[in-house]
Structure formats: structure tokens, C-alpha cells
């Protein structure tokens, strides 16, 4: 049984709706601030409709950040610690902007302000990832009848523009110069080995960190890539992604062939009596003297220092070596299908999208080559 009453409080009106929940317990919902009694009555009617339809949860004042926390800790709990950390970061952004505002009270205009505010200080990729997290949460809330409208719909994602594509990799001649320096100064430490491997295989930082000697096949000249290191938590995890779809970046595993010189360098390292693996993960790229892995900051500092010393521009990041690897193969006209497999992309769309600038450059050359082929067909 429902019962609504109305009271005037100062210059505004308040409604009070009394009802019994599914367990027979008496509950009360109140809201004030209406300019007229008619407005209060209309609002109360909507509340009564929600109660009759069983959508009581929508009326609870659950803060947006609290609902988001409950959502990802329930449905994303089996994801990697790094992924969970990303969801926690999104939760923090929500709490900082919206405070304790209830999720069902957020409008599309407010959410757009939130996204635009993030875009003032964060890069577009980070803002896009935050929006993706929230949109998935809101979609589930809609399916569970906790929301009536999708306030994330048609929102414009902004952010600081990423570096231009040409700033993400170095050219072929500079790659040769870098590789020569790394080999000539190989005795300087494991960092040089790590940089060489990134340049000649295109592997990701977390994949290289996870390498053990059992992953190297010196007879057949290849590396098996089937795990990555959650370096912040010092844990090895496989590259199998839960809920894998065509949008996943990782394949389950792959085998990467090595050139003769890279293979010999690592075989010499393995046989070097002064090099001993002494860590609980049994991984190669671990600094025994300081008891730590080679961190992302450390390897980037080493690379940038070398690039500046060699007057190589642009000064790319460690991940830029992966892009350099791919660009060299593309310019050498290696099949994009093979490149996609070598990089561990789950589909060609990812590879083409990432290197669309290079593919476009080569397309004109292919077009001219095609015309020449059929021209010769007529002549001959």
C-alpha cells in the first residue's frame, strides 16, 4: 500500500511517500525543495510508479563512486592487478569531481563537464579509457533498471593530443646507429640487452620483463612469448585475457624468430659465468645488485640518455622501439599480416589502425607499382 503526504517547509514543498518493501517492512521516502504543491505531487507520482514497478533501487541515494566501486569489484575482480588499479584510478576521478552525488542524479551535461575537465590535464587516451570504464558501468546499470537514461551517450571525449606518429619511432639509419652503440657497449649492463631485444623483436616492456631462459630456443632461433610481468606487483601472469574479444590486444601466445646476432648476444649472456639469475621469479632482466627489476622509468632514462648522446631525434620512449621495429618491417615491405602476428595483435585492424600513417605512405607507392605491372603486361 502506498501513501503520499505533502508538507510546506518555509517557501518550498516536500513530499513523503510511505510504502512496504518486499519483506513487508515500512519504508519512507522524502524529498523537498519544490516551488509548488503541484510540483511535489507530480514528483511523488513518479516515485510511486517506480515503487510499483519494483525499481526502488533507483531511488536510493547511492553515490556514483560507491556504485562504480561495487560494480568493478564484482564484475572485474578476476582481472589483473594492473587493470584493477586502472579502475581504482577511475573511481578516484569520479569521487573527486562528483563527490557523493547519487548516480541516478547525474545528467549528461554534468558528465560532459567531467570529461572535459579531465581533458584539460590528461592525454586523450587516458580520458578515453576513463570514459570507457564508466560507460561499461552505466550500461550495466541501465540493464539492471537502476538508471532510466544513459548520461554517457554522445559525450565528446577530449584530451591533450598524443605525439605525432613520426615522434614515436626513429628511422632506419638512426636505428642502425643505436644498435651499433648498444652492441659496442654491451658490457654496461642488462639495460642494453633489453633495448636490443625491444628493437629487434618489437616485444612489449611487460613481455620482455617476464622472459626466462626457458623461453629462448637457441637451436631454432626463436623466443616464446606467453606471459607478462605485472611489474608493480612482481607477479608473472599469462597473456590470456579474460573475456577475450576482437578488441583484445594480446594473443594467447606467439613465437618470435630472432636474427643471428641477437641470438648470439643472448646465448653469450646465458653462458657468461659472471651473470647469475638470483630472483624468485627466475627472470632474466633483474638487477641482483639492487634487488629490483629494470623499471620502466629506468629503461626510459637509459634510452633517452643514449639517444641524446648519439644526437638521434626524436627522443623516443622504450615503447617507441616497438613502433620502430614495426615501421622498419613495413618500409622493408614485410607482410602486414606477419607484422601483426609478430607484434601479438589480436587482429589486423589493430595493426592497421596503429600504423595507418605508414600504411598510407606505402599505399601510393603500391598504387604506382600496380600501374607499372599492368603497363608491362600490355608491352610484353
Q: Would you kindly provide a written description of the structure presented here, covering whatever features stand out?
A:
There is one protein chain. The strands form four sheets. Strands 1-2-3 form a three-stranded antiparallel β-sheet, with helices on one face. Strands 4-5-8 form a three-stranded antiparallel β-sheet, with no helix packed on it. Strands 6-7 form a two-stranded antiparallel sheet. The relative contact order is 0.08. The protein starts with a strand and ends with a helix. With 380 residues, the protein is an alpha+beta fold. It has three domains: 3-59; 64-143, DNA polymerase, domain 1, CATH 1.10.150.130; 165-355, Intergrase catalytic core (hpI Integrase, Chain A, Orthogonal Bundle). It is built from 14 helices and ten strands. Strand 2 and strand 3 (26-34) form a beta hairpin.
